[in-house]
Amino acid sequence: MKSKQQQFVTAFAFVLAAITAAALFDLNRSSAGVGTTAPAAAVSTVASNATGTPKDTAVGVTLVTSADIGLPKPGMKIDPQRTAIVITDPQNDFLSPNGVAWGVVGESVTENGVVEHLGQLFAAAQRLDVPLFVSPHYYFPHDHHWKFEGALEKLMHDIKMFDRRGPLDVKGFEGSGADWLEQYKPYIRGKNVVVTNPHKVYGPESNDLVLQLRKQGIDKVILAGMSANLCTESHMRELIEQGFDVTVVKDATAGAKTPAGDAYQAALANFYYIASAVVTTDEAVQGLEKAIGKSKAE
């Protein structure tokens, strides 16, 4: 008579053999195309075509990374009631040839057409009534008394980047490096725009962006702005940690080029690894237009 242990081993082996045989049977049927039906989720998946142009189906519109990067492409479904655009630092010190950072970021800004592409996003948000949140970067006199700083914090303070006279003092703000690029001002004054408190280092942990998004029921973000590997990437990371679904607009951001490396390329790799989707400005605008048009039709 077999021991209980021997009986268990025999039974386990029998069950394992049965499971393996069943799996092989299903695999053979699937390979032959016999009696297979795609799961409902797969049938209704929203995807993009080979060029990355968003497609709309019965379940909505999504933004999907079009680049072949050897990674999954989860995409971000656009829900007009829950989606917003977030733009970091659309300010003169980054985007104007007169800005203090232009010497290191200007080449990348120009190559990517950032000024024009951010303008497209501002215009689309106003035209389609999409909530748009601006997360600016300001330094006040008391910020210059910090007892320690990182490399770029020290540089920004040394060159007086984004400096203002005080949180309640706008004297000298007009046209300064901390001011908006002139062509964006009509859009930023729009009723669909929220300008948050300033972030102080790179991410939104030090301002009220997350609070403002949640208070408006937003959990999907189309992210753009400056600078790619600093504020833009830091906003992406923190928003994702906070539970937001984030798509990055890759040609509406740029980075510094210094002996340390190409900051935009460094950030782009992380966008691909971390965001739900990485798209162009045209793809983002087309997706919003389709999603909002579809919503209104329903």
Beta strand count: 11
* Principal-axes shape call: globular
Task: Report on the biggest sheet.
Answer: 6 strands, parallel
CATH topology of the largest domain: Rossmann fold
Concise account of the structure shown:
The chain has 298 residues and is an alpha/beta fold.
Task: Summarize the structure in words.
The protein contains 11 helices and 11 strands. With 298 residues, the protein is an alpha/beta fold. It folds into 2 domains: 4-36; 41-297, Rossmann fold, CATH 3.40.50. Strand 1 and strand 2 form a beta hairpin. The strands form 3 sheets. The chain has a 6-stranded parallel β-sheet, sandwiched between helices. Strands 1-2-3 form a 3-stranded antiparallel β-sheet, with helices on one face. Helix 5 packs parallel to helix 11 (281-297) and helix 9 (228-241) runs parallel beside helix 10. The N and C termini lie far apart (71 Å). Residues 1-50 have low confidence and may be disordered.
